[in-house]
Amino acid sequence: MDAALGPPERMADRADELTPMMSQYFELCSAYEDSLVLFQVGDFYEAFCDAAERVSRLCEITLTKREDSTGEYPMAGIPIDNAESYIETLLDAGYRVAVADQVQDPDEATGVVDRAVTRIVTPGTLTEDELLRTDDNNFVACLARSGDRYGLALLDVSTGDFYVTSTTDESAVADELGRFSPSEAVVGPDAPTDPFDDDCMVTPHDRSAFEGDSPERLVESYFGDPGTVLGTAAEVRACGALLDYAEYTRGAEGDDTDGERDRLDYLNHVTRYDPREYMLLDRVALESLELFERRAVHGRAGATLVEVLDETACALGSRELKDWLRRPLTEREAIEARHDAVGELAGDVRTRERLHDRLRDVYDVERLISRVSRARANARDLRSLKDTLDVVPEIEAALADADCATLREIRADLDALDEIRDLIGRAIRAEPPIEVTEGGVIAPGYDERLDDLRETERSGKQWIDSLEAQERDRTGIDSLKVGHNSVHGYYIEVTNANLDSVPDDYTRRQTLKNSERFYTPELKAREDEIIQAEQRADDLEYDLFREVRDTVAAESERIQTLADTLARLDVLASFATVAAEYDYARPAFVDDPNRTEIEGGRHPVVERTQESFVPNDTHLDAENCFAVLTGPNMSGKSTYMRQVALIQLLAQAGSFVPAADARLSLVDRVFTRVGASDDIAGGKSTFMVEMTELAEILASATDSSLILLDEVGRGTSTTDGLAIARAVTEYVHDEIGARTLFATHHHELTDAADALDGVFNLHFAADQDGQDVVFDHEIRQGPAAASYGVEVAREAGIPDAVVDRSRELLDADTADRSEHGKNVTNGHRPDARTNGETAATADDATAGRSGDDGAADADPDLAETIREQNLATTTPMEALALLQDLQERVEDE
Ligand SMILES: Nc1ncnc2c1ncn2[C@@H]1O[C@H](COP(=O)(O)OP(=O)(O)OP(=O)(O)O)[C@@H](O)[C@H]1O
Whose CA is nearest to atom 5 of ligand 1? Predict the structure, then answer.
């Protein structure tokens, strides 16, 4: 176990003798064993012993020590004012942090001041704005098992988004986790801990939260009858245990005296879903289609799909956009409803701009309302809520002429919460301070008692303001001054020279070098009155503020619905902007299965990152659903395949698509097996990764899926690779029948088109311009003629000698194959040098005989290596590796 966690060993052997404060620390460390405890001492959060050493090293703060009668303890303190950034460092280092605050006024404490853990900060349950990304959700997952079923719950504590699903298939769990990418996971007994990403913290949680009727009771207390809101026992367990964990991380501050935990009142809705309601995009697909993360491919300046699509105006919309892309729909009606709205807004630039303009003033009310419910919102938060509510009627007005059902529904759902808006407007000052306990928060006119107190305060101060003139008159001392300081309060200051004129009712308050300060009984009385009124007013303000906050909290469900409505509208407007500005077309959905008809399709990201882009068509249907795609390296195969998948994904997310026209049938899942990636940390070779991904495709794809295969069998010998590629083609064609695009450098695979109905060839061509290869990026029917790997190798900087020799080998191979049906290994090997001198035969080289020109001094194995190559089945990647090897050997000579 990590020595920084749990009760410090150094204290354990003297636990009974510890000072009361250290004993408190020791006990909190024992109670929160899985967290690093930060313990408030005045203005600092302290850690002691091993935890101190760890905190000091990670946060780069000085390690000091605390000494008392029981010994000496290393100590490290982080300033409370700046705690969040240090806590972030500790989270990044993999710790959960239990924050133990002083929960009693030190002046009221008889012995040691009471402390309690008020929050446990963990990666998945963050609510601190400083630690959260505004444009993305932050989920904590909970995986529970009941019989052979897995229940998966996902909660964003900062926004209240809560999803639950269940499945009997462990790989489906991994797929959903890939989609939501939680930063933390709570795992129940018997549930697997391996489907989580490396960067997801797996948290052990109290077993009892998963057991007995505790999950059920908790679900019921939040959402009503578990049987109605949720489906299976596994879902109830996952959801209940996650609620328990979320409450646990709120610490003890909310604990009632009877030990009941405080509730997370803003969690008033859980969405139960079936993964089949959404187009499935597993982790591999999300990564290879670069939806949210970039991959450096061909050195192109990377961008992600979400980056080129995000024209949202507010944080709510930008998070919603990610969610729509993560979970494209599979129900035609729902998709078309989104398309209707996008179409209407795309055609109405004025409304779109007006909406965008207004939505820019919308605050992140989703996170705001969760702060309100957790009693962490300040007066500025409430004003921000009001500012948001203020724009709602304007948004409503902008949608006054909305025609389609979706926009009309949105308009109807817009709820400006007039009474809340009015309440905040009346109660909270326009620019309130951050601190809510020190007054200045409640607006004048809101509460009579408060106004009276403020009036007393004001008139008292006014009287004091007039006192100076009055006392000057009375005493005849022209230099007399009335002032105030925080230690001594109000005073009348008289210089030493005038002390003789001081009246009898002056009492000395303070002596300075050149003057004396006094007060009079009346001044004192007025001062007390002001102080009292001020104190009572501040307290009253705080009470009133809390009342307003509670009233707002009681409407959290309506505010969440409003947030959701605004988020949807923002995404639809963003889709519309992209559609209008980048010439996207509305896709049509067709009933016949397996249809992908795209005219002039473009890759939404690549077209934005380079000067010109060549649009291409795609035609797949039940009769022709498997395209084998050949062509030189860099000709555009990967781009083309991804563009087909992205168009399908965008269409189902509700967006228009980068194409002149698209007619599509729905897809249940996009599979990708593209690019070579090593999973060295996971102990898998490139080939293993490739085969694991392929196995998943073959096991799970249906005839409604879209499959992209980019060079299958690359990581093994050419013969094995080709065999696998061919077998996969046959299997997908015969058994699955999914729409498939298969890019390959195995030219033999193009023969599959003759053998299998439904398989056809497409290719990209290249022109040779002198020694350069020029790509037109235009897709054509039929197989590619040549692969141009050698020319691409030249462009990559392989020396001419090697490139020329490769070209000779290729030519010889082609000639041999056409004449004898043999490969190049039987051909002749000319001189390795390029000076045109007499070539030695391969046989000479193999035999190690020297030619007159010295060329035969060449490494005899070199010829052997070249002979061994079956160039007919060598991929360009392999050819490149070979060239590199040959080059090194040639240079050695
Ligand atoms: N339709 C197109 N219009 C314009 N440029 C394109 C087009 N398609 C691809 N490109 C450009 O060509 C580059 C290479 O494309 P891509 O990666 O798709 O080639 P590839 O044939 O898959 O190569 P390899 O076989 O080496 O993986 C892209 O980065 C892009 O810059």
Answer: 613
